[in-house]
Design a protein that fits this description.
Length: about 160
């Protein structure tokens, strides 16, 4: 059996075009990169096209500076039928001092879709290591929390509608 491709690392230099008005890296620039990493990680895992269904627990703990080297560590933590939770950890490195800071972590729900935009079943996740099992257990709890939050939103009638904004 071939080994599953469930993790991916991408390193990007923070350039001045990514800056916000105060000269640090814009949150939106980081979100775009985060989404690209999550896309690549999930698409590589299931060998098909995927879309971003949801993103949660984004907390920018620390600012990222222009000139830093940022590494995105992504991994598939959990697989449902068609959805995959991809966790991404962001580490910024100062190029001269080599000091590393964990600046952000977040969790994407990526869904495999076919040419008609219909979700389809992806390969089951094989939990090989203790670390895989730990991440999977935490992801199961987050999946339950997401479901609960969706149900509460529905009960409050705050789902997207034409009338509401
Ligand atoms: C994501 C999308 C395919 C889900 O469509 P859907 O009709 O709800 O599909 P399904 O009911 O088959 O659900 C598919 C999976 O999505 C998950 N899902 C649906 N809504 C979700 C939500 N709000 N949060 C997290 N997961 C969700 C379901 O739990 C299911 O997971 P599972 O198959 O592992 O059990 C659809 O909403 C879509 O295409 N959205 C646009 C995505 C996009 O364009 N993203 C780019 C940003 S604009």
């Amino acid at each position: 059996m071939t080994k599953q491709e469930k993790s991916l690392t991408m390193t990007v230099l923070m350039t001045p075009d990514m800056a916000n008005f105060s000269g640090n890296v814009h949150g939106g620039s980081l979100l775009k990169l985060l989404d690209q990493v999550a896309y690549a990680c999930a698409a590589k895992y299931c060998k098909s096209y995927v879309v971003t269904a949801a993103l949660d627990q984004v907390f920018f703990k620390q600012q990222v500076n222009v000139g830093e080297l940022v590494t995105f560590f992504a991994r598939v933590n959990h697989v449902g039928r068609s959805s995959m939770e991809v966790g991404v950890k962001v580490v910024a490195e100062h190029l001269r001092t080599h000091e590393k800071r964990h600046t952000t972590s977040c969790f994407f729900t990526m869904v495999a879709i076919d040419e008609q935009g219909k979700s389809f079943e992806v390969p089951r996740l094989i939990l090989e290591t203790e670390e895989d099992k730990k991440h999977h257990a935490a992801a199961e709890m987050r999946r339950a929390m997401r479901q609960e939050s969706l149900e509460k939103s529905r009960a409050l009638n705050v789902e997207l509608s034409e009338e509401e904004f």
